[in-house]
Each structure stands twice: as C-alpha cells, then as structure tokens.
C-alpha cells in the first residue's frame, strides 16, 4: 500500500479512469498496489481496530445469520454519521454510499428493511462484535489490523486522502511529510487511518489532535486551533463546501515506508457471519459487473476513479 517514485509534493494524477481495473491508481499499477499492501501488512503500519480471511466459518453450533435476518426481515447496520459514507440526513433517513448499497443488496438477499444504529467510528468494531448491529455500513477501510477482529466484504471503493486547510493553504501543506517539515499542527478523526499514515511519516502521535469527525475538524481549522485536518478526499471536499475560511487540498496518495497506503472501504461482519458475508459479496460483485454500483454511489460524489476490483483477501494479507 516497489511502487514508482512519488514527486516531492506527494501529489499524484488521480484523474485517470479506473474502468480497466488493471490500470494505475494514482500512477500505481495493480501489481504495485498489492506489493505495497504486502509490505504494510508485514510492518503493521496501520494501527487502529481491524478483519481478515483467517477466520472461522459458520458451521456446527453457529446459527446462520443470513437466515435469521431473512426471518426477521430486518438488518441492523452500524454507521458513524460521516458524510458521504453513512449518516442520517435532514429528513431523518438513513443514507450514504454504504447504506444505499446495503439497502439494495439486503433486499436481493430477502431482507426488506435496513435499520441504522448510529455510533462513533471508533465504536463500530466493538459494537459489531458485541452484536449491537449485524454489519458495519460506514465505508470502513480494510486493513490487516481490522482483519484480525472482523471479516470484510470486498471493497466498494478505493480512495485518496486530502487535507482541510485555511483558505489559500498558507503553510503549503499537501502531504504528511509537509506537516512534519513545516511544523504544522494536525488533527484527524477518531480511529481514522490518516492518523497512522501521519505517524508513519514522522508526525508524533501525541501531537495529533483527535476529533470526533470531519465537522469538528473543519471548525478546528477555521478557528486556528490546528493547521490541517486529514481525512479522505471525499469527506474533506464535502465538508468544506460553503466555508469561507477553509478549503480542501488536492487529493494525494498517502505513502508509508515508501509504499502506497491503500485506502479501500468495505462492509464489516462478525467472524462467524461468513454465510452473510459471502452472500453479500456475491451480490456486490454483480453490482460491480453490471455497473449498478457506480450508479448507486454517484449521488454521493463517487466517480469511476473510486471503483476497484481489489479483494478483501488482498487487503487483509
């Protein structure tokens, strides 16, 4: 997550379409992506709570969650109130790219209703494991560490990072190394992967202000409490709309130990819920194949550039 050399600003050309899934992402080939993933997995560079394919399958003594959900007619999904990934809109309705995908897939699996269970991002995996909900539907990044605690669907998207900075970007912050070199004050969200990216690039963990979400991050930048808030490019781009004191930087590919750190989000399930995960995956692959997945997520700012054919197994390894 050895790739091509990155330029001094860490910027990459993210405008190239990914309709051919073997084309580069941000200038990196699929082979380089997977090489980077392997390196990061070995180094354990991603911190935060974690899912993988090394989990027990449903068998004797395990109730089929899929059958139970079909009988109930309802699936509970954990969300973290993050636009555009999973949130409650002004009309009090569950929406976001992940919940809208979940609604389509669960209906095809014979589960008519999807009910939100809001929580903080850092509580999603603990809440899933303690059965507060049946699946995490929050666009959660798939990392080797998370893969030790939950199992993931294949990712529905792949994403670059971006910063919230003051208007005009007075300190010239374009990547994590810039934060170190310019002594900038940084913030990010609770359990965000961006914290680990920054630490791996030399930002002291204790110096990072951890905030509940991107809205709090925008306020911190606008008020001058920090110089930069790090998040996914979509999150950052959407939250700064309408702000006259802050702006989003251009998306960039985070690099850890010289390798691209791959940000790809998926749905998380309890390790015993392999039947549900596998059935969910089959429907997700059909949505990708037909092009329906892109149509579902387009209203939330996703483009073909964010589509991917990477698998959870590759990301967990």
UniProtKB/TrEMBL annotation:
Keywords: Signal. Residues 74-304 form the Solute-binding protein family 3/N-terminal domain. It comes from the Bacteria. The keyword Signal applies. Gene3D superfamilies: Periplasmic binding protein-like II (3.40.190.10). Residues 1-24 are annotated as: Disordered. InterPro entries: Ectoine_EhuB, Solute-binding_3/MltF_N, TAT_signal. NCBIfam families: ectoine_ehuB. PANTHER family: ARGININE-BINDING EXTRACELLULAR PROTEIN ARTP (PTHR35936:SF17), MEMBRANE-BOUND LYTIC MUREIN TRANSGLYCOSYLASE F (PTHR35936). This is Ectoine/hydroxyectoine ABC transporter substrate-binding protein EhuB.
